Automatic annotation (TrEMBL):
Domain of life: Eukaryota
Coiled-coil ranges from the UniProt annotation: none
Source organism phylogeny: Eukaryota, Metazoa, Ecdysozoa, Arthropoda, Hexapoda
Native source species: Drosophila virilis
Segments passing through the bilayer: none
SUPFAM superfamilies named among the record's database cross-references: ClpP/crotonase
InterPro entries per UniProt: ClpP/crotonase-like_dom_sf, Enoyl-CoA_hydra/iso
Protein name: Enoyl-CoA hydratase
The family this protein is said to belong to: Belongs to the enoyl-CoA hydratase/isomerase family.
Pfam families (UniProt xref): ECH_1 (PF00378)
Length: 336
């Protein structure tokens, strides 16, 4: 899986920066200073770079997950910083709309695998029980709109972060999915609640139970994302969308947004908090064992090849009589 992720990441990086700075940033101020700190840290690979970048483009707040070498996976420290950044944005009266994105070609690969392995070895699921969420403030409603710019891989709890946002702009080569299914890690950041609200019960169960990939065309069709854009332009197009919303009178916009949250079935505030609580309170000790085995299987499969073909599509075997019929039909065709 990492090999495929690396391939997509490389292709995305190759074409991204030119497109990113050109088509992505239609706003005037963005053309002048598009994510300067993101570009700086991405180019230099500084080890002391902050794991979360916060910038403002006019009145739009840009929040970037900056752990490029880890595919923007989120450890405990990053989750705290992300929550702080979102809280600060919500408290900023001069910024009506925010944008959440990942630096360097992928939005987020979910929870940090090293920390996940350490938790599994300790037999602990405490990381799932953090008050606001394991990867950010996912167990509450955002107080202001945030647009998500999705590039590369947006999987596992990274997808839960994307679902936290009001709108999602997805690049045409990006990939979504609950890949944590393969590791035995439960969904615990509101994903089961928000996904059903976004795509309906049947689609949600399909995505959750199979852990399969969801590509851009399907994601748009089922309502999982709101826009498809060219590779390398997700951030810029998300910023443009944020500006198009921020130009409206804020009081009525917030009123209608809050009314929508209150009236939309599982998004209703009491129902939402109850559903999120159920998501984490039903975690069991058996999941610890699944998680331990899943992490081992994942690490081993990357080094020595997969130990199981459970994730591969298997060709149906034909019964002898059907094989014989096919041979007869082939012989008749050859005679003609």
């Amino acid at each position: 899986m990492l090999a495929e992720m690396s391939k997509l990441f490389f292709v995305s990086r190759l074409s991204s920066y030119n497109k990113l700075i050109q088509g992505a940033l239609g706003s005037k101020s963005c053309r002048k200073k598009f994510c300067l700190s993101a570009a700086k840290y991405s180019d230099t690979g500084q080890s002391d770079a902050p794991s979360v970048l916060v910038e403002k483009d006019a009145n739009i707040t840009l929040i970037g997950i900056n752990r490029e070498q880890q595919r923007n996976s989120i450890d405990a420290a990053t989750a705290v910083k992300l929550s702080e950044a979102i809280n600060q944005f919500e408290a900023d009266d001069t910024s009506p709309v925010g944008v959440l994105y990942g630096v360097g070609g992928s939005f987020s690969a979910g929870y940090d695998l090293k920390e996940l392995e350490a938790e599994a070895q300790r037999g602990s699921l405490n990381f799932l029980l953090r008050h606001e969420g394991s990867v950010g403030p996912t167990r509450r409603h955002l107080r202001k709109p945030i647009i998500c710019g999705i590039s590369g891989f947006c999987v596992a709890s990274g997808l839960e972060l994307a679902l936290l946002c009001d709108l999602r702009v997805m690049e045409d080569t990006a990939v979504l999915g609950f890949f944590n299914r393969r590791l035995g890690v439960p969904i615990s950041d509101g994903g089961t609640v928000r996904l059903v609200a976004a795509v309906g019960y049947s689609n949600a169960v399909d995505i959750i139970e199979t852990g399969r990939r969801v590509y851009a065309t399907e994601a748009l069709r089922i309502g999982l994302v709101n826009r498809i854009v060219a590779t390398g332009t997700a951030l810029g197009q998300a910023v443009n969308l944020a500006f198009s919303i921020a130009k409206f009178p804020l009081a009525s916009l917030q009123h209608d947004r809050n009314a929508t949250l209150d009236n939309a079935n599982v998004y209703a505030r009491p129902g939402f908090h109850s559903a999120v609580s159920n998501e984490i309170m039903n975690v069991t000790a058996a999941m610890v064992t699944d998680m331990q085995e899943g992490v081992k299987r994942f690490k081993t499969s990357e080094v020595k090849g997969p130990k199981t073909d459970a994730w591969h599509i298997k060709q149906n075997s034909l019964p002898d009589w059907e094989r014989a019929e096919i041979e007869i039909e082939q012989q008749l065709k050859e005679k003609k």
